[in-house]
Every structure is written in C-alpha cells, then in structure tokens.
Amino acid sequence: MGKKIKIFSILIIILGIVIIFQGRVEARSYTVEDMDINATVESDGSVSIKQKITFKFNGEYNGIYINVPCNFEDNDYEKVIKDNIINEDLYNSDNVTIKDVYSTENGKTKQYRESKTASNGISGVYTTDKKDNLFEIKVYSPSNNTTKTFELNYTLENLCVRHNDTGELYYNFIGGAWEVNIKKLNIDIYLPNNNKEVKFWGHGPYEGQCKLVDNKHMNFQVSNIKPGQYVAARVMFDNSNIANSKKLSMNNAKERILLEEQKLSENEEAKKAFSIKVLAFAGCLVVYWIVLILIFEKDKKNMYLTMEEDEIFKKYNPMLAGCIQGSRNILARDIIAVILNLIDKKNIVLELKNTLQGKDTYSYYITKNKEKEDQMDDIERYVYNWVFSGNGVVDLQQRLKDMPQEKSSNAKFRELNEIVERKLMEIRANEAKVPMWLRVVNTFIFILCLGIAVRHILFNGLNVYSNNAYGDIMIALVVMSISLLPLLMGVICGILNIIIMIRHKINNAVQKITGQKIVTTTISILMLFIIIIAITHFITPFKYLVVDEILICIASIIMFTDNLMLKNNPRMIEDYSRLNMIKGKIKNYSMMEDKDIEQIVLWDKYLAYAVSFGLASKILKRIKSLNLDDDLLNMVNDDILNKYITTDYNIFYRYSNLDARFVKEFTKTTEKIAKSWASSGSGSGGGFSGGGGFSGGGGRRRRRRCFLK
Known about the structure:
This protein is α+β, with helices and mostly antiparallel strands. It is built from 21 helices and 22 strands. Among the domains are: 33-252, tricorn interacting facor f3 domain (Immunoglobulin-like), CATH 2.60.40; 309-433 and 567-646. Strand 7 and strand 8 (134-144) form a beta hairpin. Helix 6 crosses helix 7 (378-388), helix 12 packs across helix 13 (518-539) and helix 13 runs antiparallel to helix 14.
C-alpha cells in the first residue's frame, strides 16, 4: 500500500508538470536565447540601433513583436534620487524610424517589407504602430519548432540630450514587458567621433557588467533577465559628439549626473551590504541554535557503571527505555517494541497457525493471558488494550495493518504519549529545559527577524519595470487557479505526500543516531522553505528575497523547536548511561560473526529493546543467519511482519498522523471538485483563426500577446 501511495503521488506530480508545461508550450513556449544591441550615437542626437534577437520556438507561431520604449523610465532613479530635478520629457525619443527587418533561419536570410495592415498566417511583412508612448514592431514570420534570428535596424530620433557642459544618452534598452527570460543580453554603445573621456553606468540587475573598450566603445552584458526586469544605460560624453542636436537643456548637468550616479551606486552597495548583514545575522542564529541544543538538550556526561540489566529491564519497559536513551517522545516503533516485550514476558500468548496457502505459511495469532493482566504498568496496559481492542484473540499481522487506519489512531497515539510524558516527568527524565524567559526571547527574535526581512524588502524594493506587471501577474494567477483548480489540488496533494514521505525518511534516519523528535519539526520547516527559496530564485527576479527567507527559516526553527529540547535530570544520568551501554551491547552482538552466538540466550531478552533503540534491522539481519527454533523469532523473520518491524512501523505515520489525515481529506475534496467540474461541462469562446500566436516583448506596457492555435 505504501508503494502504491508513493507511485500515485509521483505520477500526480509528473502529470501536473507535463500538463502545465504542455499548456505553456501551446500558449507561449518560446525563449530568447540571445539578444545583441549595437547603438551608435549620431551627431544630431539620434541613436541608430541594430538589434539581433535569437528566438527558440517550441510550437507554432505567426511571428514576433517588439515594443520599443520611447519614454524615459528608471525605477531606481525615481526611488533613490528623491530631490531629482530631471525633466523626464527631455529624455524621451521623438519617434522611431524603421530601416530594415531581416530574419535568418538555417543559414538563409529573408528581408521583410513594411505593410500598413496584415493578418495572422501571412509572411514577409511587418507593421508598426505607436501607442501609449510605445512603438510596436510586429513581424509576420510563421515559425514552428525552430530557432530563428531576427535583425531590426531602426533609429531612435532626437534621443540624446545636449547640456551646456556635456552630452548625455540615458535610455532603457530593455523594458519590463518581456514575457520570458532573456538568457543573454549584450549592448554595445558607440561614439564614432569621440576622442575625449566618457563616463558610463548600467542600471538594472546586480549581475550586469559594463566595461570601457575605448573612448568610442562601451559594452554592457547581462545574463538571465527575468520577465519584468529592465536594463538601462547612461553615458556622459563631450557634447561635441552631438553638435547638431536640437534637444538642448540649457543647463549645466555634469555635476548633477555624477552626484546622481554616486547616490545610485551607493544605494546599490548599501543593498548588497544590507543583504550580507542579514545573511550574517542568520549565520549567528544558526550558531545560537546549536548552542541551545548543546546547553539544553545534550546530557553533560555518560557514566560507565556496572551493568544491572534485569533491574533496568524491570524498571523501564522498551518504550520508556527508548524515550530516555534517545531523549525523545514516543515513536511508532515503540508500540511494536512493547508488543514484543509482552510476548516475551508471556503477558501475550503467541500462536502460529498454518494457513491454506502452504506448509511454511503461517498466521500469527496473539491471545490475552488474563492471569498476567495485573502484571503490567500503565504504558503496557494501554498498548495491550489498544492491540486487542476488546477481542480475546487477534491476528497480529492484520492488527498491525489496521491500527494506523483507525480514526482514533492519532488520538490514541497522543494519549499514549501523554502517559509516557507523565511517567518521564515523575522520574525526571527528558525534561524540557529551556526556561520560559528564553522561549519568550526566541519568540522576540522571530518577530525581530520578520521586521528585519520587511525592512530589507522595503529597502530593496520590488523593482518591476512595468507598473502593470503586478496586476497582470495576479490576474494570470487567479485565472490559472480557477481554470486548473482540480489539477492544482491534485498536484498539491502529490507534493504533500512526497514531503511527508521524505520528512519521515530523513527523520527516521537521523533518529536512529540521535533519537530527537526535534528533527521532524526542523525537517518540515527546512523543506517548506527550500521549496519557497527555489521558487523565488528560479521564477522571480527578486533574488535578494532568498536572504530574507533563509533568515525567517532559521528564526522559525529556533522558535518552534525550543520546547522540544529535552535533557535528563542528574539523577537519571546513571540509568541513561546503563541504557546506552545496553544499546551498545545489543549493537555489538548483532555485528558478531562467531557461530557461538547461537549459544547466547539474548534475542528474546533484548529484541524488544533493540526495536525501540532503532537497531531492529541490524538485529533481525543477524537472526536470519541463525537456526533458532522459537515462535517469536519465526514471527520476526516472517517477510510481512518483518517489514513492520525493520521499517520502524512507518506505515503508522503514513496513515494515522495529522499530515496523512489532512492529505486524505484534501484528496477527498479534490475528487469531489474534479467530479463536479467534470459533470458541469466547460464553456468556449471566440478567438483568432489560423495557427500559432505572436511572441516577443519590450517596452513599458505588459499585455497578453500570444494566441493559441
């Protein structure tokens, strides 16, 4: 059953990913592999642009479109230069003039001619349109599963500004309306007649680089530009290079420009420094958490004392022994450990019965031994009653399978844990040692980290070029969520199952070494934030948010795990040490290869404690090599029952815990919604005829531009 759940969950996730990406292929499955821009400043202040864009199309498209921004836009400038006196209209281009449009595919070059109108499906023409301060170039070039390079030659008229003491080019070459990543961007700016000093700056992603090739050539390079980001360049040069420019500011601007760029540079450095400080603070919190563990969780000493095993076994049943030795709360495997111990002590009578399936196939029935019912402690009695559940005889294999699936299983597990906690409190073992005042401090640290994260976000700002981008993104998410709700819920269900399985596997692996309950909480928080961090890093342009997420993750771990830090009272150190020695003895015996081990009567005595200590798989592996005639050992060697024991009864978590119950209810809800949607039918709407859609971007406005086939 467990394997079926794993397979089902993985298939759900794979199906969801395939469908999502298939939808993406049909809607706008194209990428911008490379973009190269050559910008030459002319003497009249215009800028000649040669722009090459390499598209990789996955699917059928009618062509591309480019929105060339004509107006000045720089979010960093507007936020940092509070007292700016810049006349933005002075930096706008008057017009865009198209000279040539080409495409290259498989080594063949094709030229396009301008047309006033065109319709989807035709080829060899382009149209232009100026609206909302954008100049739209739409190239009709049907493409299907191919890589094609487009070259556009155009002029931004009257763009550069001639100040009294300097000339200036300030332009956002990449606006925020590109719908996909631009993997590689290269911008070369040329001043063909310049012989004097130039100064230049690049604005946009932190990862961008700019360099001076010579006084006539500046180069800007940026990789992996996310949708919504922009790239702007600012160049200050001798105004003799634009001697014929009619765009005059009539002011001295050199000192102002230098001061503004200094502030922008300082702001960028301050952002980086802020991020480093936040990350360093997160590192300090990790150290702080480790110190808390060492002080409030790790026992100070391990005493080496003479073994008094019978007294220890009488004093602590396997469940208590495992909790004390592992400094933890109860685990599902402790239930099996108690059952095995009760069988060994004859409180439960084990009987093997042949089934009709074969001579060597048995059913393992357990029967109450009423004569010994008064010879059990509260913990053993609770497990005893739970297992038999009012019956005198039960099939142990079937009962272990059914127990986790009962509605009351989680509640009973918690009740059993409370009984154990009360017992541990009485003997002062596994005490919560973190004082209340320190837990208040940890809560304050968490709130402080939230404040730091908010301050960091506000300081950096969510710099999306297009002001409409946020609204468009939210609308797209809402539409997608509604239209794909059943699928989305199925994917979430699958992800939850995978997270639960991974969390328990990691938890079990670490608990075999440390036994700490803290691991489950820590792993859950870490897995949640790993998913969030991955989404932030790979999907959004706001990479600095990763630092804030790391900080909040660590603060959450500290706040939610300080109450799980447990230690033994000094009076318990002796028994704790004895239990550690018993664990070591069991482990060492399980590794022995001497055949004389068969003469040592220890398996019935130690098996239950080996299960609770997390050594079941090693012990049973050793037992299988022995020829011992014992019903209990035959039972633990049974393939089916062996899985319950050696896997630490993980099936219990898969069915009984709150995570699993939530997933089960979530799955039921998903099924109901899916059935409801299937029975209600679907609507249809109009659209453009013909294959494919248009791809591309650029400029300030962000609109949906792709048409489905």
